[in-house]
Amino acid sequence: MTLEVCFESKGTGQIPDQLVILDMKHGVEAKNYGDCKKVKLQHLEDLSESTVNDFMCDTNESTNTWVLYFSIFSMFCLTGLATWQVFHLQCFFKAKKLIK
User: Fold this and answer.
1) Cα dist. 17→9, 14, 20, 22, 65 in Å?
2) What pLDDT tens digit does each residue of the chain (100 aa) get?
3) Would you tell me how many other CB atoms lie within 10 Å of the CB of residue 43?
4) Is the Cβ–Cβ distance between 13 and 19 less than 8 Å?
5) Among 6, 43, 70, 88, which one has the highest count of C-beta atoms within 10 angstroms of its own C-beta?
6) Is residue 43 a contact partner of residue 28, using CB atoms and an 8 Å limit?
7) Which residues, other chains included, contact 62 with Cβ-Cβ below 8 Å and sequence gap of 6+?
8) CA 75/CA 10 separation, integer angstroms
9) Do residues 28 and 50 lie in contact, with contact meaning Cβ atoms separated by under 8 Å?
């Protein structure tokens, strides 16, 4: 989205220093909603839709790849931990002479 803003000050004689405040809004913020309850409901719907759209844009392919690799790493860690626990329990029960 490209936006150009141009200011021009027309006056006669010497112009004192001026302060210009530019408050730009976009998306849901830019819509003008009145005080009516129906309009407030529409505002909430637009806000939730904007949030969902932002979330969908943020989930890209690199994020999905990272989640995949992290899941695979977690499965290997859990498998190794479970194997270690079984081995440790076997040694413990053999030491207590509960199993052969």
Assistant:
1) 11, 10, 10, 16, 54
2) 566 767 676 766 676 677 777 777 777 666 666 556 667 777 788 888 888 777 776 666 667 788 888 999 999 999 999 999 999 999 999 999 888 8
3) 15
4) no
5) 43
6) yes
7) none
8) 70
9) yes
What pLDDT is attached to residue 11? 66
Q: What is the pTM of this model?
A: 0.36
43: tokens are 């505002």
pLDDT at res. 100: 80
Residue type, 97: K
Alpha-carbon distance of 42 to 34, in angstroms, equals 10
Q: In this structure, which amino acid lies at residue 93?
A: F
Alpha-helix residue ranges (DSSP H) falling in the chain: 37-58, 61-95
